[in-house]
Amino acid sequence: MNEIHELARDLGQVPGELARNVEKVIPKTGLEMKKRMQADFRKSRHFKQVAKSVDYEVKRLGFGGDSVIQVEIGPNKNRDTSASLAGIAYFGSSKAGGGTVPDPVVPMRLEAPKFFGFMEMAAEGLL
Fold it and tell me: What are the respective helix, strand and coil percentages of the chain, to the nearest 5?
């Protein structure tokens, strides 16, 4: 019976330790995606200036004992006013032009395999 109590105690510690490990992974992923998005803008002949507006923010949200760690990445008007051109750069406009920068989903998909590898490493050895 004592072994069951020890196992229960150990399993109870897993979420806290996993959260600490995940908190290290999320900012790294955000930074890498930011770099990819900036590189995409810099390659554009007409939208290079938007690259300096791209940033990321890590957010920690909690509700009822559950917590969520997320990262928001993209052009930020508070950082640079050129961010207002991002929609045209990504998707074009009703007039000719724009749509020359890869969709922001592309950097996310390119970064996903690394992210999942880091997440696996974050959980490794916890059970």
Answer: 60, 15, 25
Q: How far apart are CA 119 and CA 127, in angstroms?
A: 14
Query: Which residue from 41, 63, 65 is spatially nearest to 51, judged by alpha carbons?
Result: 41
pTM, full prediction: 0.79
Q: State the virtual CA torsion across 33, 34, 37, 43 in degrees, nearest 10.
A: -120
| Residue 119: CB atoms within 10 Å | 16
SS3 assignment for 60-120: EEEECCEEEEEEEEEECCCCCHHHHHHHHHHHCCCCCCCCCCCCCHHHHHHHHHHHHHHHH
Q: Where are the domains of the chain?
A: 2-123
Question: Which tens digit of pLDDT belongs to each residue from 39-62?
Answer: 999 999 999 999 999 999 998 887
Asked if residue 97 lies in contact with residue 91, where contact means CB atoms within 8 angstroms, the answer is: no
Q: What is the pLDDT of residues 67-125, one digit of tens each?
A: 778 899 999 999 999 999 999 999 999 888 899 999 999 988 999 999 888 888 888 87
CA distances from 34 to 8, 18, 106 (A): 40, 24, 12
